Amino acid sequence: NLEKEQTGQLLEKQLQRRLLKLQYLKDMFQRYQGVPSSNSEDFGDYIVLEGAVLREEANITWLKKCMEYLK
């Protein structure tokens, strides 16, 4: 089924995009030695970045699950 093949290709493309984004976010995350003090300027950046990492991980898990459905 061509539609199934195209869907699989789109999912794979999205997965690769999300994996690259996750790696970028994790590289940025490494600049922190731990959780910054809640009264520091870095704290807000840290929790937003952590949320972005968690979101990308969830998206990757979901994409992989969708790809399994196509098998």
SSE string, helix = H, strand = E?
HH
Largest sheet: none
Describe the global form. elongated
The end-to-end span amounts to 12 Å
Strand-pairing-aware structural class: mainly alpha
Portion in strands: under 5%
The residue ranges in which pLDDT falls below 50 over 5 or more consecutive positions are: none
Mean pLDDT: 95
Count of DSSP-assigned helices: 2
In which range does the helix fraction lie? over 70%
Radius of gyration: 16 Å
Strand tally is: 0
Brief digest:
The protein is built from two helices and no strands. It is mainly alpha-helical and 71 residues long.
Can you walk me through this structure?
- Helix content is 80%, strand content 0%.
- The chain is an all-alpha fold and 71 residues long.
- Helix 1 (2-29) packs antiparallel against helix 2 (41-69).
- The longest helix has 29 residues, at 41-69.
- The mean pLDDT is 95.
